[in-house]
Amino acid sequence: MNLKDLLEEISVLQFIGNRDEEIQGISYSSKTVRSGYLFAALKGEKSDGFNFTGEALTNGAAAVLSDRPMPADFKKTWIQVSDARKTLALCSANFYSHPSKKMKNNDHLFARRNNQNSRFSSRGHRHNILSMAKHENSGSKNHPRSS
Questions:
Q1: Taking CA 92 as the corner, what is the angle to CA 91 and CA 95, rounded to the nearest 5 degrees?
Q2: Whole-angstrom distance, CA of residue 124 vs CA of residue 79
Q3: CA trace torsion 56, 79, 97, 61 (10° rounding)
Q4: Which of 10, 21, 49, 114 has the greatest number of beta carbons closer than 10 A?
Q5: Is 3.40.1390.10 the CATH number for 3-100?
Q6: pLDDT per position in the chain (147 positions), as tens?
């Protein structure tokens, strides 16, 4: 997907580089960046992704997304936005063709509280996920719990 499509309906403060750059993936960890990736330089609790743009470039990043201005010596595509974390989420939705829009009403899973120490139950989630997977593989058009 090219950057122009990846940034569709996203407000950008400054774009320096090639809008037709092909993006092969998205990462906010410089360690997992591969050739053609968009690297999101996010400020974290313990470290700042801005300090890892060099490592991301070494690993093949095609572009950097940040809420900071481009450094003077930077040679690749730089995208400055007001909220890099929110923009990362929007870019990911564009990259993966908005999977949440494709969900059916009965596909949503909700957390269930149990009474012991106000913890959330994962048992019900496992049952629902496995039932849906079994239902998808069976070819039945009815909800798995209706049989």
A1: 85
A2: 42
A3: -20
A4: 49
A5: yes
A6: 999 999 999 999 999 999 999 999 999 999 999 999 999 999 999 999 999 999 999 999 999 999 999 999 999 999 999 999 999 999 999 999 888 777 765 455 554 555 555 455 555 555 666 666 555 555 544 444 444
Distances (CA, A) of 9 to 12, 15, 122: 9, 14, 36
The CA-based angle 46-28-87, given to 5 degrees, is 110
- pTM, two decimals, is 0.70
Instruction: Give the position of tokens 């092969």.
Output: 24
Which amino acid, one-letter code, is at 72?
A
| All structural domains of the chain with their residue ranges | 3-100, 103-146
User: First-to-last CA distance in the chain?
Assistant: 42
β strands within the chain, DSSP E: 14-16, 25-27, 37-40, 63-66, 77-80, 112-113, 120-121
Q: Is 51 helix (H, G, I), strand (E, B) or coil?
A: helix
